[in-house]
Amino acid sequence: MDERGEPRLSDHTPMGENGGLLPGSSTADAATMTPIVFEQPLNERIRTLMRLEFLFEQVAFGLDGDTEWHTRITVQTVLDILALLGRGDLRSELIKELERLYGTLEGWQERPEVDDARLSDYLRESQKLMEELRSTGFNPATELKANEFLNTIMQRSGIVGGTCGFDLPGYHHWLHRPAEERRAQLGDWLEKLDVLRRATDMVLSLLRSSAVPRDLNAEGGAYQRTLDRNTPFQLIRVEPLEDEGVFAEISANRHFCTIRFMEHGVGEHRPQQTERDISFRLSCCVL
């Protein structure tokens, strides 16, 4: 507890609520409504992984449909993933994060409150992912960019409306092939990216479940907090406890956090900070 009687934001246990490593932990009841959680990454590596996660979720949505437009979403998102991979050495960044994660998990082996079986599963999976990423033959961006069909679409995708039928008649024809045929081709491309998806999912899943959430109150719609300087937090998560018609704007770095709850403006007016007190759940995550 701090001087205000609130739990310190450094209060942190491995794999907290629903984290999967504490005995009896479980996911939320599927029948309950999924809460809206607002997140703010605190370093560039986690920011990149969250963008990659977003793109893979968008791919999953596109694959779930049979129409031309679902396939267009999937193809464009694959191109977006390739663009993201081209901005830095994402493979090395993932390996570094998995190595750090592996070391953290190893340190939990002697803790009596940890589920040993699940911990062993996570250790094996993280080791397997690192081996796949270190493989000399792993270079999905180069492989996919060498695909002439994909490369043709990529060259036109930077132009607004540049992938319509008269620009790319071959693509237009392929989009009208049977859905299962298109889905099989997309599956071949996505298989080359799957280790990135699995590694990203594992890192972010464990990171999100690493903190014990704290129920707090934002007086007049605002909350500020100094973070523990000795704890290198990686992610802030904010969940309003009731549907109060507000969204959270989070401004944070590794030492300080400001949360403002905003209400949408009427008509063309800009959103404004609410004057109401807002109850919310705060998680400061670090592995």
Protein architecture, described:
With 287 residues, the protein is α+β, with helices and mostly antiparallel strands. The protein has 2 domains: 1-16 and 212-287, Sandwich (YacF-like); 48-204, YacF-like, CATH 1.10.3900.10. It has 9 helices and 8 strands. The strands form 2 sheets. A 4-stranded antiparallel sheet has the order 1-4-8-2. Strands 3, 5, 6 and 7 form a 4-stranded antiparallel sheet that branches. α1 (44-63) crosses α9 (194-208), α2 packs parallel to α8 and α3 runs antiparallel to α4. The longest helix has 20 residues, at 44-63. Residues 1-11 and 23-31 have low confidence and may be disordered.
Properties at a glance:
287 residues; YacF-like; 44% helix; 15% strand; globular
Q: How would you concisely characterize the structure shown here?
A:
With 287 residues, this protein is of the alpha+beta class. The protein contains 9 helices and 8 strands.
What is the H-and-E element order? EHHHHHHHHHEEEEEEE
Distance between the termini: 22 Å
The CATH superfamily label of the largest domain reads YacF-like
What portion of the residues fall into strands of 2 or more residues? 15-25%
What CATH architecture of the largest domain would you give? Orthogonal Bundle
Let me know the number of strands.
8
Reading side by side through the largest sheet, how are the strands ordered?
A: 1-4-8-2
State the helix count: 9
Counting helices, strands and paired strands, the structural category is alpha+beta
Radius of gyration: 22 Å
In CATH's first tier, which class of the largest domain applies? Answer: Mainly Alpha
Number of domains: 2
